[in-house]
What does this fold into?
Amino acid sequence: MLKIDVHTHILPETLPDLSQAPGGERFVRLEHHAPGRARMIVAGSMFREVESNLWDVETRLSECDAAGVGVQVLSTVPVMFSYWAEPETALGLARRLNDHIAGVVAARPSRFVGLGTIPMQSPDLAIRELERCVRELGLAGVQIGTNVNGANLDVPELFPVFEAAASLGAAVFVHPWEMAGRDRMTRYWLPWLVGMPAETSLAICSLIFGGVLEKLPKLRIAFAHGGGAFPATIGRIAHGFEARPDLCAAANEVSPREYLKRIYLDSLVHDPLMLRYLVELMGSDRVALGSDYPFPLGESRPGKLIDSCGFPEKTRERLLSGTALEWLDLPAGRFGG
It folds into this structure.
């Protein structure tokens, strides 16, 4: 059965030297220090230790084959978004990253699909690069962060970006980054364990309550990590909408529950009880296999959690590939399925 992993990350083996650009110390450096190993350096400190499967395509394909993954949807590492940077510099970096992903996809179109990155701090430039990603590079869409320099995704300045994505038929993948409250999460890896789920729910609620999804019914948008805290707290969110419409329905009078059939989530929840709940809540046509490859908080064998839940074969097929194909707007026979 075909497996399409919608949540995987990739970088080029070398990154551009932006040390002389404004804020240069904040741009990621890739420091190769041993065979097949490198450190991602940010502001002089190690952000993450990475291995060759982050950049080496043959290693990546070998690991996909071992795990039975037929297709990966490639996106950059979220720390590369660089929304804090000067727009033109961020655009230049985005173009380099997008050209690299497009090249990987072009070399192996039966194994990879690409998502670009865009400089969201400048909506005009973001739209320009979004158009290039789709029309010139042949990418399926873009990956964006859950906020732009602290601004939630419903701010009016960002609406034209979502409008352009809907018009272009571009898939949008929302990944948490720069988590709210991280100043209180300095220990225990809490930004990744607590901050990311909350940040993702914040993004979903902003797009719902802000009316962005209501205004753009054709927008195909997916959220990482099973939607974070949103599915588990939909009861509280919907109750708040009903109890205080003066606060919650100020920009959109449609119940949050109505959007459970309008958004997509990946399957990366790490728990069979939660995945079964997610499928019951959202439907299998809203959930797609996602692993966060090749990082440690991901699923080491993509699809193992789905297989452990005892779903009927039709549901498994939908989770492993069918929902991904729909979200990406790709034909079922594109990969021989």
